[in-house]
């Protein structure tokens, strides 16, 4: 469902029998539940929900530029993903009679109301229109999407970071096994996720780079202890679509040791959370990445120890723990504060529908926007607002995009939270910890 696919690609390929079967299904029942959709969640049987309607995209997956990229939303609502990745052309294709006649299943009936609205999201409509206009103005230049400047950054970062990551991994597991190497490996893992696998798993490289390179950039995520598909499930589908709500797995996994929202229950020990949380954060890698894929992580840990024992005559569990703690602490300290601070908004269960794009503005924040070194080193994580609004655009474009977003947010009277320094953002995060830890 990419925005600039030709109609013949988007609509191509369903056998007559499959078309007839789909039409029979639609005529028999034009209403489906989310449970019905959830039961179609595999490559062989893939439904997705877009803007309140269910589509059977099983046959369409092979025509999608990202192929398996579509499967992250199998059996789920992907409206927010579609909104932030596709422009006017993609939405026109979705509304076209040819696409709907082949893939539409029916309208979705929900037990709970939808969290956000997309139809009347005036803020995001204006933002999307202006950002598209900007990229039309630089099309064909070195600053275009996938242009010379972007490609230089993408390929050079990939080469340098992967050399560092592989070298430090070898030294930690097979080589000297020193603590310094394990710490450096933890730092290299942070560079990998922020500069390579994170963007690739958001679709930054699809269509503008070779397919093999896009896939490879996604799969280097295994370097962090989990597979890219699992990361997409809880990061893209959950966090990016439902930022700072009850459905956001990223900001709702700390209880009962961490309270970040008013709706969470309070326990007596939480009054000290602003003091002890710094000792919990290093566990982020184990809890967030490894725990979700125990068997895959166990295989990697076993393989590393087997290689270490066979080639170096020792086991490497302490080295693996050290790199895990460094990566976990760095990841949460860099990424977590962009949403969980005293300036951003958290809505447990929205009582009134707000525009999805407006909610992204209210629930995200930036820091160190004027520091190009920070932006390049961290893959644009410090431009979290722009990243959440347009997740498949490479971070090299964020500084220019931020000018548009700030102008539109001011015009629409929507907060644009930006901290001048990292320390200011960290202080705001600490302030939230103190406030949420205070007894009710």
Characterization of this structure:
The protein has 20 helices and ten strands. It has 440 residues and is of the alpha/beta class. The strands form three sheets. Strands 1, 2, 3, 4, 5 and 6 form a six-stranded mixed beta sheet that branches. Strands 7-8 form a two-stranded parallel ribbon. The protein has a two-stranded parallel ribbon with strand order 9-10. The protein starts with 6 loop residues before the first helix and ends with a helix. The relative contact order is 0.11.
> Radius of gyration from the CA trace?
22 Å
Shape field: globular
Q: Summarize the helix and strand pattern as letters.
A: HHEHEEEEHHHEEHHHHHHHHHEHEHHHEH
Low-pLDDT runs of 5+ residues are: 1-22
The helical percent reads: 40-55%
- Count of discrete alpha- or pi-helical segments spanning 4 or more residues: 20
Distance between the termini: 47 Å
Topology diagram in text:
Blueprint: H1 7-10, H2 16-28, E1 31-33, H3 34-38, E2 41-42, E3 45-50, E4 53-56, E5 76-77, H4 79-85, H5 88-95, H6 97-103, E6 104-109, E7 116-117, H7 122-137, H8 148-173, H9 179-201, H10 211-219, H11 228-240, H12 273-280, H13 284-290, H14 294-312, H15 317-335, E8 354-355, H16 356-363, E9 365-367, H17 372-377, H18 384-389, H19 398-411, E10 417-419, H20 422-437
Parallel strand pairs: 1-6, 3-5, 7-8, 9-10
Antiparallel strand pairs: 2-3, 3-4, 4-6
């Amino acid at each position: 469902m990419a925005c600039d696919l030709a109609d013949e690609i988007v609509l191509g390929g369903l056998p007559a029998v499959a078309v007839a079967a789909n039409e029979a299904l639609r005529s028999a029942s034009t209403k489906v539940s989310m449970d019905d959709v959830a039961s179609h969640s595999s490559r062989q049987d893939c439904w997705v929900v877009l803007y309140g309607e269910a589509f059977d995209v099983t046959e369409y997956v092979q025509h999608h530029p990202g192929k398996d990229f579509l499967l992250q939303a199998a059996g789920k609502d992907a409206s927010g993903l579609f909104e932030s990745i596709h422009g006017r052309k993609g939405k026109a294709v979705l509304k076209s009679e040819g696409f709907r006649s082949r893939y539409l299943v029916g309208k979705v009936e929900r037990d709970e109301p939808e969290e956000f609205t997309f139809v009347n999201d005036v803020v995001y409509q204006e933002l999307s229109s202006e950002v598209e206009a900007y990229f039309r103005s630089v099309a064909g230049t070195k600053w275009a999407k996938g242009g010379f400047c972007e490609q230089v950054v993408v390929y050079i970062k990939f080469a340098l970071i992967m050399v560092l990551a592989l070298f430090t991994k070898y030294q930690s597991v097979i080589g000297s096994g020193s603590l310094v190497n394990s710490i450096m490996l933890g730092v290299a893992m942070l560079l990998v996720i922020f500069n390579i696998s994170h963007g690739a798993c958001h679709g930054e490289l699809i269509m503008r780079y070779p397919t093999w390179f896009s896939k490879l950039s996604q799969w280097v995520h295994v370097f962090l202890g989990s597979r890219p598909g699992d990361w997409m499930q809880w990061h893209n589908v959950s966090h990016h679509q439902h930022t700072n709500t009850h459905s956001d797995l990223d900001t709702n996994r700390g209880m009962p040791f961490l309270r970040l929202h008013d709706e969470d229950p309070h326990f007596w020990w939480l009054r000290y959370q602003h003091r002890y949380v710094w000792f919990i954060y290093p566990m982020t890698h184990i809890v967030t990445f490894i725990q979700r894929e125990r068997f895959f992580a166990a295989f990697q840990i076993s393989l590393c120890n087997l290689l270490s024992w066979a080639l170096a005559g020792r086991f490497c569990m302490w080295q693996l723990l050290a790199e895990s703690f460094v990566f976990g602490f760095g990841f949460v300290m860099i990424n977590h504060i962009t949403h969980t601070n005293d300036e951003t908004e958290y809505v447990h269960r929205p009582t009134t529908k707000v525009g999805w794009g407006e909610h992204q503005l209210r629930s995200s924040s930036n820091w160190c926007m004027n520091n190009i070194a920070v932006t390049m080193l961290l893959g644009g994580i410090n431009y979290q607002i722009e990243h959440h609004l347009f997740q498949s655009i490479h971070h090299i474009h964020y500084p220019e995009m931020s000018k548009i977003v700030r102008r539109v947010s001011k015009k629409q009277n929507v907060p644009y939270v930006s901290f001048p320094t990292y320390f200011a953002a960290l202080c705001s995060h600490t302030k939230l910890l103190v406030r949420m830890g205070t007894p009710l």
